[in-house]
Design brief:
The structure is a single chain. This protein has ten helices and ten strands. The protein has about 260 residues and is α+β, with helices and mostly antiparallel strands. Strand 6 and strand 7 form a beta hairpin.
């Protein structure tokens, strides 16, 4: 169904987000593509500002990305908070990706031919699809441009969304993606210590998330990550009291103490 000569509505059976995105990629006739999840939205000017930034570059840009504007909504349909942060443009792209700064679907503007050149979206992934496709884009050496304006809104409103209803599956997928990035970095020139530390912090944070559901599962995950040199208890998830308890009593006991402090 069409609405004038610029809008087309296509419907079909629900076969998952990436099948739909690839269908849009197949139908697209323009140079650039904007994807948007149904529960998110864009601020006026988002696409225009990214296109203007890309047009101002000497070299061709394949992917334009920005920070998200994160909104938290309660069950009554009221917005409780809104936050955004600028990214550090000087940080290596790999480091930004490991920090999950190069991913969220609505923040990215794709050159259509560049996305086609890497095979589009991977329809086998049940979650973290944006993390996976941007990883492939980096490994394929597509050219990225950061526009430090938070004009794509990412809404957190339910624990039953694809990326939140099954934390263990998300952690399994993200860990696999991190390992792919780290394996690729081993063959790249330069010092990647900061990327390794960021990957270790991400794995530590995921271990803490696992511990909220099963401390033995989290402990096993931690051991596997330590063996790979990718476990770094730093950042907001590692306050001083937690680090001290972990140092003297171990990870599992630190999580037991943290659980006791949360629930009494």
């Amino acid at each position: 169904r069409t609405f004038g000569d610029q809008i087309r509505l296509e419907t079909g059976p629900n076969r998952g987000g990436n099948v739909t995105r690839n269908r849009l990629l197949e139908l697209a006739s323009g140079d650039w593509l904007q994807f948007l999840d149904a529960d998110d939205y864009l601020l006026p000017g988002k696409i225009a500002n990214q296109l203007q930034a890309a047009a101002g570059q000497t070299d061709q840009v394949d992917v334009v990305y920005s920070p998200p504007l994160v909104e938290v909504w309660n069950s009554s349909g009221e917005r409780e908070e809104s936050s955004a942060e600028n990214y550090v443009a000087e940080d290596p792209l790999s480091l930004q990706w490991i920090r999950w700064h190069v991913a969220q679907t609505g923040t990215v503007l794709w050159r259509a031919e560049a996305l086609r050149s890497i095979g589009g979206w991977n329809e086998e992934y049940p979650c973290c699809q944006d993390n996976e496709v941007t990883l492939r884009a980096i490994l394929s050496e597509l050219r990225f441009l950061l526009v430090n304006r938070a004009e794509a809104v990412y809404r957190i409103w339910s624990e039953q969304t694809v990326c939140r209803k099954n934390p263990q599956r998300v952690i399994e997928v993200k860990t696999s993606l991190i390992d792919q990035m780290m394996a690729w970095l081993q063959d790249q020139p330069g010092d990647h210590l900061r990327s390794q530390q960021a990957a270790g912090q991400a794995c530590f944070e995921m271990a803490r998330t696992l511990a909220q559901h099963s401390i033995p599962t989290a402990a096993a995950y931690r051991s596997e990550r330590v063996q790979k040199g990718l476990f770094c208890p730093t950042g907001p998830a590692a306050p001083l009291t937690y680090r001290l308890v972990q140092k003297w009593m171990g990870f599992s006991n630190a999580e037991r103490v943290a659980r006791w402090r949360r629930h009494g």
